[in-house]
Amino acid sequence: MISLQDIERYYQNGFTKTYILRHVTTEIKEGEFVSIMGPSGAGKSTLLNIIGLLDQPTSGEYTFLDQPVQRLSEKKRSELYKAYIGFVFQAYHLIDELTVYENLETPLLYKNVPSSERKSRIADILDRFNMVAKKDLFPNQLSGGQQQLVGIARALVGQPKIILADEPTGNLQSAQAEEIMQIFKQLNQEGITIIQVTHSEKNAAYGNRILHLNDGKIVEDLRVESIA
Ligand code: ADP
Ligand code: ADP
């Protein structure tokens, strides 16, 4: 599903190149649940953003669903993103001025999903996450855990093949964090590929593989026994 071949990413400041990722080569198969770990500044978010088509490598070859990402037009990349990828963020990134329902509708409007289909997809996901009664509330009327549920729901209404999450429980209490990880685990069992950036060993234990990054390089690639 995902193939990274000798990926590099640097930022150019005058004559100086600062490398964020170096010689990153790996494959991620459909159905995996991967955790990217490593110290702050190791390049974890940059790698996640490249995998999620939000950023581009400066060299190397990235193949996503058999498509040579760097050789695609901006338009084609955006279509791929809309069709297959759902992003979940640490700070939720909900739109404060919109209700829960409207936040969930936003990606569907953007994808031109017809009205009746929008309604049924949103109803299903609100029901699944026990949030029907909250649909007309605004994000600031919800707890952090509930806001993250909306963040995940917003990713899911797009029916993605893959969910990318950058520290999805970084702002949450441990009980809420566990609930979010249980949901990821469940989604993974339903066939959605999951890649998360996390500092938490506990969160990583929900997945089946840990990629350790340090100084822009993969220094360890571990298979783990996923906890039930
Ligand atoms: P991590 O997620 O592991 O903390 P990041 O991928 O966010 O690491 O960033 C790795 C390094 O790249 C950090 O030192 C960060 O300051 C730097 N960085 C990120 N984005 C930019 C940018 N647009 N320009 C320059 N440096 C950047
Ligand atoms: P995170 O929550 O992953 O640590 P940051 O706060 O480090 O995110 O970065 C937020 C945004 O700022 C990212 O899009 C990143 O690319 C950008 N960024 C981070 N460090 C730098 C930097 N040194 N110069 C320019 N942009 C940066």
From TrEMBL:
Gene3D superfamilies per the UniProt record, alphabetical: P-loop containing nucleotide triphosphate hydrolases
Domain ABC transporter: 2-228
This protein's record includes keyword Heme: no
Entries under SMART domains matching the protein: AAA
Sorted UniProt keywords: ATP-binding, Nucleotide-binding, Transport
GO MF term list: ATP binding; ATP hydrolysis activity; transmembrane transporter activity
GO cellular component labels: membrane protein complex; plasma membrane
Homology family: Belongs to the ABC transporter superfamily. Macrolide exporter (TC 3.A.1.122) family.
Name under which the protein is recorded: ABC transporter ATP-binding protein
